[in-house]
Design a protein that fits this description.
7 helices; 276 residues; OB fold (Dihydrolipoamide Acetyltransferase, E2P)
Length: 276
């Protein structure tokens, strides 16, 4: 009976569109264009013989790049994804037209190299957080299972649907509203097991658009916060931060000890929202 109740709740939320989602702007943000122009410029400066980029950004230039990175995810993460996807199609056409002779890296790799420059100055945690579109405080309602059709493999796989009531928003006010319910989706497996939640308990959760297909369909997923850009970490669930008696825990990654929610909000805004 309890399982049936959860399914009914999920169905009501899903089919009545009672949850917020990310969306793409009608026009491409100038922040997106400038960030990728910087990424292209940086990529072209790579010297394959010496194995280094010839461009040496000043601290002020890296700060500006970090601000661009913050803005593209704060304002239009779906548009940024779409822009890189379209750039990939153009890159693919160039490669095919050259018979595979073009050695230019794919746009996503250009983005990655520029992001590492930000991390060299500010640290990986800071870079991951400013590149996270939303941080939501949510009370866990329930979880359900459903089926996701993987078009590339032409088969269905199981996915988890985590339902939260949004209690507060640290980042992402443009896309979410306090008091709404959000459904966060993930496909758990050996590489990325599900996080553990307790019904009625609150959590701070980093989220992003989930791109299950070429065109974004409004889904929301966990944003994995990396600790290392040079290795592939397996068997680790998405980072979430439980809140009990108004004390937020697991805050080492965020650079602060477990503390009360009010103090944490002040710290988060002063530390990670400096480009607002």
């Amino acid at each position: 009976m309890k399982s049936l109740y959860k399914i009914l709740i999920f169905s009501f939320l899903l089919f009545n569109n009672a949850y917020p989602q990310f969306y793409a702007e009608d026009e491409i943000s100038p922040y997106i264009i400038e960030f990728m122009e910087k990424a292209n410029e940086f990529s072209k400066s790579f010297d394959q013989v010496q194995g280094i980029h010839k461009i040496k950004f000043t601290d002020d230039e890296v700060e500006h790049i970090a601000e661009l990175f913050f803005k593209v995810y704060d304002e239009d993460p779906v548009g940024f994804h779409n822009y890189i996807r379209e750039a990939y199609y153009k890159w693919e056409g160039k490669v095919k037209g050259s018979g595979g002779k073009i050695t230019e890296p794919i746009p996503a790799l250009k983005r990655k190299h520029l992001v590492k420059k930000i991390a060299n100055k500010y640290g990986i945690a800071f870079t991951e957080i400013i590149g996270t579109p939303a941080f939501l405080r949510g009370k866990f309602i329930s979880s359900t299972r459903s089926s996701y059709y993987w078009s590339e493999r032409k088969s269905s796989i199981g996915q988890m649907n985590f339902n939260f009531l949004i209690e507060d928003i640290l980042k992402g006010e443009k896309f979410f509203n306090i008091g709404d319910t959000v459904i966060i989706l993930m496909i758990p497996n050996v590489e990325s097991p599900s996080p553990s939640f307790e019904e009625g308990k609150s959590y701070l959760i980093p989220v992003k658009p989930r791109f299950g297909s070429a065109k974004y369909n409004g889904e929301v997923g966990f944003n994995y916060l990396s600790e290392n850009y040079n290795i592939w970490v397996m068997g680790v669930p998405p980072k979430v931060f439980p809140i009990e008696n108004e004390i937020i825990a697991n805050c080492e990654y965020l650079g602060i000890e477990d503390t009360n929610w009010i103090e944490f909000k002040k710290y988060f805004r002063e530390t990670f929202l400096i480009f607002n």
